[in-house]
Amino acid sequence: MDMDIPNPDELEWLEANSHLHEEDLLELSSPFPPEEERQSPPQSPSPLNVSQAYYHKRLQSDSPDSLNLEDIITSDEKRRKIDDAGPETEEDWLRYAPPQETNAEDEQHEEEIVVDEEKIVSRFASEIEGDFIPVTAPSGGDRVYAKICRVEREERSKKLDVKSQSNGLVLEPVNVLLRRVEEDAFTKALQASSEGSSDVVLDETQMVYEQLWVDKYAPNSFTELLSVEQTNREVLLWLKQWDSRVFGSEIRSTSDDILSALRRHSSVTQHKKSSDSSFPRRSRDYRWTNVSFRNSNDQDHENSNVKGIQDLWNKTSRLTGPPEQKILLLCGPPGLGKTTLAHVAAKHCGYRVVEVNASDDRSSSTIEAKILDVVQMNSVMADSRPKCLVIDEIDGALGDGKGAVDVILKMVSAERKSGTGKENATKGEQSGRPSSKKGRKTLSLSRPVICICNDLYAPVLRPLRQVAKVHMFARPTVSRVVNRLKHICNKEGMKVGTIALTALVEYTECDIRSCLNTLQFLNKKKKTLNVLEIGSQVVGRKDMSKNAFDIWKEIFQKRKIKQERKSSCGSMCNEFDFLHSVVSNRGDYDVIFDGIYENILQLHYHDPLMQKTVKCFNSLGISDLIHQYIMRTQQMQLHAYQPPLAIIVHHLVAQAQKPNIEWPKSYQRCRTSLMERMDILRSWQNKIPPRISRHLSIKSLVEDSISPLLHILSPSTLRPVALHILSQKDRNDLAQLVSTMVSYSVTYKNIKSNPLSCNQEYEATLDASAISLDPPICDFINFKGYNSGHFVLPLAVKQVLVHEVEKQNILQVSRSVHLTDGCNKEKIDLADGKNSESNSANDRAALSTVKIETGKNKLNPNQCNPSGSTMLSNLDLSARSDVKLKSSGNAKKPCTGSTNFFDRFRKVSRKGSENTDIAVQPTTTLERDSRPVLFKFNEVCH
Amino acid sequence: MLWVDKYRPKTLDQVMVHEDIAQNLKKLVTEQDCPHLLFYGPSGSGKKTLIMALLRQIFGSSAEKVKVENRTWKIDAGSRTIDLELTTLSSTNHIELSPSDVGFQDRYVVQEIIKDMAKTRPIDIKGKKGYKVLVLNEVDKLSREAQYSLRRTMEKYSASCRLILCCNSSSKVTEAIRSRCLNVRINAPSEEQIVKVLEFIGKKEGLQLPPGFAVRIAEKSNRSLRRAILSFETCRVQQYPFTSNQAIPPMDWEEYVSEIASDIMREQSPKKLFQVRGKLYELLINCIPSEIVLKRLLYELLKKLDEELKHEVSHWAAYYEHRMRLGQKAIFHLEAFVAKFMSIYKAFLIATFG
């Protein structure tokens, strides 16, 4: 493509003078073949005239509904804007930069109507309706505007496409721009005229008429955005990915274009990082101009572009589905233009923005209707654009406001379920012929949703974070913001130095909104911005709360003091103020101090004698005391004493290097596992029969009892041999052990191999499934990095113990206890034997022997009772056993009333009720026979 | 059954350790004039045993027929109703509970349960006492409000019920309540008394006690009878024919604390402090109360310390323990103590060795 481009010097000059020089800038030679070219006498347009001049490249498109028209409109607008403001001359050239398009159907229709009766060539662009190009005669420099025919050859249209797409990122229609020019002129005139008049009048009129600068100079097009290019592009790309879903396949070509545009744009900006422009608003664009200017080998340039598009074409055929994450979450500090970006990008992509913000009712019922309305409905009216939902300030959604998050999550999860199928469907549709965009109606999220928040780590957003595409908003560079501010000041006729602006921007931390408001305020008051007094001047300081990580960073990291001119005392003072405001604005002192506590020991501060550490911990301790006191007495005003404590810590340990900060978790973790342990202990204590447990508190359990109990429960003398081989002494020990276990309701249990199990490595060698104590009391002495010298019983002994304890429990409680693990057959047999009388004689014989053993074991401990303590009357015992039955009946099945006969055996008088089981009748005699012997034996023993 | 439970005295006459108190109590009850009682003393000294024996003295053996109940109360507190759930032990004549388990709403429990008891006052009195007994455990953990409300109800329903309060430290019980009760201080048993008990048990179990063995156990028991008997039984399980220099297995958490102490002595740096923090967390997670950890830690540190530092270190331990009790996050103060100790110790080392 061959075009005449004003050289950069010229542009610089233009910008320096910042006057309207339309004549200079409209020197374009046509990139198009002469057949479109008509001559007309030269003209020198007046400012207003020229401002009407706009390019209008009509593209040939497959369908009359082509959305490309929108582009053209935007390009016109851009042109218009350029003409408005002299400094933006090079905007013209920008058109050859990123080809971008939007999809707006409403504009497109009115455009359609006008196109038919138009002039073909004219000296005045305003006379041509529709697409046209300016043509300058090679000889005289005469300039005409030529209408572009709609019938063109295929490949040319493609070429044109490339170029025309590059224009337009301005969305405002011409008439708006025109009106604005008039307004500007009017305002200026008004200002000029009112200059002389009295102050009172001036104030009144301005109060009435003046718009907020923030609104007045809000970016209207994509290229005007101040936010970081990367973010802008990603947001736009994300929105573009919705095209296939929202617009059907019509948008395909344009989405390719946007991709290529983005790519070119990015490559250019990368190349041109070094070029420094003092141009106020569109420094980046200006750079682009330089590039294209230098890149005089137009043919090459074009070729490469075409190639790039080809690549992208292939690429995007894969990309056309709706984006992976259905929700975009923009977060960043206030005043950087998140909302603006969302609006601009959505508008740019042809959506109608529906905004829900904190001022709206956000209870879940109303929000659900609203979101469904936006997201799932396709509009009935033909000219309405699809909607894009922007939920602003979603992190402030508390209480009722949570509804929004819930509804969105619900829809996303619904989407997930049917996600794959739908996407396939979309693709199929995509590859086919163009289909109407109202073809499908889904119940899930079918429109882009953009959520905006300040604090990414707000608890409400936790679930949303996982499903959404998150974009952190970075601060724009100071120079960029300053440039824009300067531009605005120039336009408003306010004299502010760059240094002052820089100071302001730094003070507000690139918060454009705050800067603008301040400037406007100062302008109103006829004051100038004073560098030194920014702190004291009425700079709009917002109630900014940073997220916790930032606060910790501020506390642990020394700020680099850039301004050397500040005296050390002053900077100290500032630092204090700054930290104080930061900490107190956040307010969540509990978390802040937790974070300090968790991270402080990871810092590398020089502290040979630990004095700093001691001081820091003192501060932490005091903050804890204050916190507790406040909680108890509800004297919230005492919170004022918390931030200085954080500042003390800052002064003690702050380092220049970047701290590695983690979210404080260990305190919470400690609390939850403490709760767990407490629950274990409490339930254990409840299981222990009351006559023992009443003497034990949980504290005394852990403090005094568990360690010895574990020793007692695992005697090293117990050998893993069959019961009948055991010596009498060993049997006594075993019986003693079993009775202890029963009385403390401790048993062994099969557990799946659990890394926490205290004796896992031992048993892993023996058996896959380990057996460990049932209330896992051995965990309580199993400290990390501590090797307790507890003897671990062999597996065989444990199994024996399990059997014995189970038997005791069965005997004690009822026969209808359901056996949990079903591990030992004996017990099942036992239960069977009791329940049904159909057991074989063999079984019964086996049973009886088992029971004899149990009887023996059980007898021993009871007989061991010293005379002093066996004073319990029969009555007591039976009553107590009743109690036991009842208490354990809660956990297990209630006893059926047929208290077994063995109870009578175990405790001499423990039989509660009368009926005995017929099935076990044979054993009765056996045991009765053995009883006296045992008694005698035991008595001898003691 | 463990020896602790097996040889627990069931009646006031059997009590071996606090015989004088037992006799006084017996006199008190038999003379039919039982005031409210407040038992206080360190754990493992026998408060609960005395109370149970006392109940038995009052009500006879029926006091031992207890049942466990998970009672719920619905309390109408103005605008809302509060559901409370608490485990109680009750017999026909007494109810036993720890109201502090329900946290800050313990006030309601105290009020309600006393009213309940007053309503269901035993009518048939033949030779038995015409009142019920309410045993409240851990009174020192009661909230201030609960103690205040207790104060009134104690008087109002004193005809129908007697309160037996049980706590570790009487200083946390308000003056008003203390003045309404007969305060009974239960000392920790002296080592001689512990030895006596151990020998008694040994005789009953038919064990041969080598000379000095019981004394050693008593020394290690921290004057807690429960702990002494438990470690006695542990020794018995581990090695029966006792030898006089037999190892007495320590409490595991105490071992762990002494490991921490030696860690602290070995190196003093923020890095080490961070490791110590992990270990302290371990202890706290396993339900060891932070005060006890601090106390034990101090004890272990003092053992290893030079004389001249002991005073200062003890001072700081007290300082941080005070803070710990006032504050909420025990770990902050525990660690602050460790940091302080490290600082002191390091300065000392540098001063001594250059």
UniProtKB/TrEMBL annotation, chain A:
Start and end residues of each AAA+ ATPase domain: 324-477
Domain of life: Eukaryota
Keyword Disulfide bond found: no
Basic and acidic residues bias spans: 75-84
Keyword Aminoacyl-tRNA synthetase included in the entry's annotation: no
Region entry Disordered, spans: 18-111, 418-441
Family: Belongs to the activator 1 small subunits family. CTF18 subfamily.
Protein name stated in the entry: AAA+ ATPase domain-containing protein
Cross-referenced SUPFAM superfamilies: P-loop containing nucleoside triphosphate hydrolases (SSF52540)
CDD domains from the UniProt entry: AAA, HLD_clamp_RFC
Pfam families per record: AAA, AAA_lid_RFC1
Subunit structure: Heterotetramer of subunits RFC2, RFC3, RFC4 and RFC5 that can form a complex with RFC1.
Cross-referenced PANTHER family: P-LOOP CONTAINING NUCLEOSIDE TRIPHOSPHATE HYDROLASES SUPERFAMILY PROTEIN (PTHR46765:SF1)
Localisation: Nucleus
Keywords from the named record: ATP-binding, Cell cycle, DNA replication, DNA-binding, Nucleotide-binding, Nucleus
TrEMBL record, chain B:
All copies of domain AAA+ ATPase, residue ranges: 33-192
Pfam family membership, one: RFC_C
Stored SMART domains: AAA
Keyword Chaperone in annotation: no
Annotated keywords: ATP-binding, DNA replication, Nucleotide-binding
InterPro entries in the cross-refs: AAA+_ATPase, DNA_pol3_clamp-load_cplx_C, DNA_Rep/Repair_Clamp_Loader, P-loop_NTPase, RFC_lid
CDD domains reported in the protein's UniProt record: AAA (cd00009), HLD_clamp_RFC (cd18140)
Subunit structure: Heterotetramer of subunits RFC2, RFC3, RFC4 and RFC5 that can form a complex with RFC1.
Descriptive protein name: AAA+ ATPase domain-containing protein
Species of origin: Hevea brasiliensis
